[in-house]
Amino acid sequence: MKHCASLVIVALLCSSGLARADDGNNSTVENAGSGRIVGGYTVDIAAYPYTVVVTISTPNGAILCGGIIVASNKVLTAAHCLYRQSVSSVRLKCIIITVRAGSTLRTSGGSLMKYRRYVVHSQYNPSNFANDVAVITIRGKFDGRRNVGKIALQKTEPVISSVNPTACFVVGWGWINLNGQLADRLQRGNFVLMPQATCASRVPQVTSSTICAQSLQGDACRGDSGGPLVCNNRLYGIVSFGPRNCNGAIPDGFAKITAPSIRSFIRTNAGI
Q: Among its keywords, does the record have Methyltransferase (predicted)?
């Protein structure tokens, strides 16, 4: 275990605080791994108490993602944030996950929680981002903590219209520019939902477990993965993938909360 801890420290020093969680291919989209909402604006955590910073540390480095509180000790995030770490670190049992809740700041304030366990969707596909969801169980509970609270899940299949689009938003601490600078404070980007057929005609990775949204102001980028897509005060999706340059050129893809495969996974592993 001492050897494991040493590896983590060295990896963190070498990573310079920046790590990616993308699929490594040359497609027009990539996972929104380590970074801020490019072109967004600063907001206060008090209005988004369900949003958390998830930091995953392994012998290979540290990865920053977002997360969403959905129960007293449960956090949803993107499967791709944990998938490679699960594969590479499983034998060493050398993965450290922390969750920072209740703070507008990425690296300080609020409550820093340790994890008890995590589960990645067994049907997550890193090639097309299908079922890009994982559940983290923390030690202790979020209950009673300042600026911390859960968000309700969307229960029914959303009606998506291009004529009267549904307004949504994404929040996170991802890149603020393409130079890899992380946001120090929570950022928000505004989106509208896009019909599945329209999205699929522009983004080949879209599956039945994807919900798409087009950015209006600010696009999700590296480090925003695992964060919430919120519409009508409910969780509609989990940040999964988007345009490589985080410029809104194509729609962003989110793990769809109402997709049967995802809803069943959440019900089984988060108890809601």
A: no
Choose the catalytic residue: 34, 89, 209, 225: 225
121 is catalytic: no
> Could you list the residue range(s) of the whole structural domain that residue 203 is in?
152-258
Residues 56 and 122 in one domain: yes
Judgement on whether residues 57 and 121 belong to the same structural domain of the protein = yes
The tens digit of pLDDT for each residue in 163-222 reads: 999 999 999 998 776 666 788 999 999 999 999 999 999 998 899 999 999 998 766 777
| Cα angle value 186/188/190 (rounded, 5°) | 175
* CATH, residue 84: 2.40.10.10
User: Do 113 and 169 share a domain, yes or no?
Assistant: no
44: annotated active-site residue = no
* 225 tagged catalytic: yes
Q: Are residues 124 and 174 in the same domain?
A: no
From 22, 132, 219, 224, active-site residue: 132
Query: What does the pLDDT look like over 23-37, one tens digit per residue?
Result: 333 345 556 543 335
Q: Say which of 80, 103, 215, 261 is annotated catalytic.
A: 80
- Give just the sign of the alpha carbon dihedral 142, 146, 147, 151: positive
